[in-house]
Amino acid sequence: MLIFFHISGLDLINSLDELSDERKCKIIDSIYEHQLHPKNDSDLNDGKFGFTCHRSAIGRDEYQFDYCNISLTYCALTSLIILGDRLDRVNRQAIIRGIRLHQQNDGR
């Protein structure tokens, strides 16, 4: 998510206030459009839910070729926090489950 570098850069130089509240809301909505959601609890076993880099997540019911990854999920969550979002729309259960499924037995 390229937007992460723009947002964190503005924050780093104390210029985040250059973005209007309306613009921040649009960016937040755009980030949430990249979140993949499971259709049901059995989908959680796939471990492919979180945030993706492309907008193919929008309006899709089938995720055969869509996968999130930890890096993109981190960038999305960090961007949302920097922008002041309360993370109410984050599917925490799916993200936590996905990370656990990708973690190796030794914790790596």
From TrEMBL:
Keywords: Repeat. The keyword Transport does not apply. This is Prenyltransferase alpha-alpha toroid domain-containing protein. GO terms for molecular function: catalytic activity. It comes from Euroglyphus maynei (Mayne's house dust mite). Residues 2-107 form the Prenyltransferase alpha-alpha toroid domain. SUPFAM superfamilies: Terpenoid cyclases/Protein prenyltransferases (SSF48239). The keyword Repeat applies. Transmembrane segments: none annotated. It holds the Pfam family Prenyltrans. InterPro entries: Prenyltrans, Terpenoid_cyclase/PrenylTrfase.
